[in-house]
Amino acid sequence: MSSSAPPETEPPVSRSLFAGSGERGRWLVWRAVGEAVVAAALVLLVHEGASLVEARLVGAAAGLAALGIVLVLVRRRFPAACVVGLAALMGAVPSVALLTAVAAYTATRQLRTSRQRAGVLLGAAALTMLVGAVLAPAVELGSSLFGLALGAVLAVSTVVVPGLVGTAAGQQGRLLRALRERAAAAEEARRLAESESRMRERSRIAAEMHDLVGHRLSLVSLHAGGLEMALEKAAPELRDEAAVVRRATRDAMQELRAALGVLGPLESDTGTGALTDATGTRADIEALAEESRRGGIPVELCWEGADLDARQARVRRAVHRVVRESLTNVHRYAVGSHVTVDVRHTGERVVVRVRNGVPPTRPAASTGLGSGRGLAGLRERVALLGGELEAARTPGGGFTVTADLPADPGPGAEPTDARPEAGGPVAADEPAGRLSALQRRAVGAVIGLLGLTGVGVMALFGVLLVAHARYDLAYERPERPRLGMTKEQVKRALPPDDAAVRAAAAGREPPRRPAATDCLYPYASDAAEGNRLPIVRYCFRSDTLIAIDRFTVPMVTEPHAGSRTHD
């Protein structure tokens, strides 16, 4: 018998937008509400840290951030689409960077093939860089090269790194599930092998008893028959005694074969009580009741539910044995009492109840023929199927035997107390199991927050490095601004107009040319000389550059005394 783990089955797809595969319950809505609150907090946190890009998007940034929150809530249902959508939004709204990291981690944990994971991560990273390269010149943030560099930093820190962590976590989870399934399959195989070994041993015992005791009983019956024929003429008054011995021997042989059927395989009993297709069905129970009626026992049969002909043979045999043994006890100890046989068959259970009233006459003294093993054998047979049997006297003086059986017992079903090692944790361990699950979730939440913190710090340092190099790399051009260039050409060659530089030059700059209609004050990239700030002013007439003025202005300082002076 192979003990290999069964193939991993796909969990059922949930109908909820906020649930993953196999997740159900009303708690999913509350989880989504909590995640929405946390996502909004993360968006606001990142927005406070870096709002330069979003400030240039005027009122569109808030709507795009809200769309990012919606996408992160449905990431379990649509993992790949949410990662790609958030990556595109991140190129325009960096506030959703941490939400993109969460979605990338969740998606790579759920996706099962390496091709899907690689495709999603590479596609999302490329889309972030593409949106950044296109959007940066449009919002006058910088050149396409600067937008591409900024998108690359965000893509690596919030898409690729969380995606790789999610891939490792998903593979670890699937490996643990496979190991658990393999262990469960091995345990089931061991239990089935033990059950089969027990059945073989019982069959061997049954065969030896049949060969030894059955042979002796056959000889006794043979000699009793010969003695009966010999006494027919020699001593007719003793002939009846010999006949009684022969009949008793024949009955003993039949009872021996019936008893051996309990020890042997349940589907291969021998003798007059051998299992047939009708054993345990409604017709079979009716035949047992009719047989008792012919013996002077008033039996009333009440059957509820479908017939048992479609149930397993061992279930039908157990029903047959319970009714037959109960009626046999009535014949022995309660002759003439009214008997009610109730069989109730539901979709999952089969309940058999045999109840007899008080006999009209007191039973005769015990003959010593009963072994006391009838009810014990029934209880063992019912327990082997995972059921329960109760036998007790009624308050009115009668007797009731009740058997509760599973309609479809599993393979090798055994009583729970007979195999304490086969099941999962006992009931006493359940609170500890729940506590352990809560602890694991708490640890997972803490690790997740630490991971988001690390992603945020890594993304922040990357953005700062790119921003520091923006004027040294992103705007460096072979052709510097010169007179006669158009305003659009100058803007492409220079950093954007800086409000702080314009304010510093106000009132301290040299006079503009009379023909100048507009001037640009780009960021002063040169180092300050002493306490003076160098400024380069580009003035235009209509759309043509007519003057490039270089000058310095005093830098404003704040004295500690509280009074404000200007150099």
Query: Distance between termini?
Result: 94 Å
Strand content: 5-15%
* Element-level helix/strand string: HHHHHHHHHEHEEHEEHHHHEEE
- Shape descriptor reads rod-shaped
Helix content: 55-70%
What does this structure look like?
The protein is of the alpha+beta class and 567 residues long. It is 56% helix and 11% strand. The protein has 15 helices and eight strands. Strands 1-2-3-5-4 form a five-stranded mixed sheet, covered by helices on one side. A three-stranded antiparallel sheet has the order 6-7-8. Helix 1 (27-49) runs antiparallel to helix 3 (60-73), helix 4 packs parallel to helix 6 (114-138) and helix 6 (114-138) packs antiparallel against helix 7. It is rod-shaped. The chain starts with 26 loop residues before the first helix and ends in a 13-residue tail after the last strand.
Give a quick rundown of the structure.
With 567 residues, the chain is an alpha+beta fold. Helices cover 56% and strands 11% of the residues. The strands form 2 sheets. Strands 1-2-3-5-4 form a 5-stranded mixed sheet, covered by helices on one side. A 3-stranded antiparallel sheet has the order 6-7-8.
List keywords for this structure.
single chain; 567 residues; alpha+beta; five-stranded mixed beta sheet; three-stranded antiparallel beta sheet; 15 helices; 8 strands; disordered N terminus; disordered C terminus
Helix-strand blueprint:
Elements: H1 27-49, H2 52-55, H3 60-73, H4 79-92, H5 97-110, H6 114-138, H7 144-234, H8 236-263, H9 282-294, E1 299-305, H10 313-333, E2 339-345, E3 349-356, H11 374-384, E4 388-393, E5 399-406, H12 430-468, H13 470-474, H14 487-493, H15 499-505, E6 518-520, E7 532-541, E8 544-554
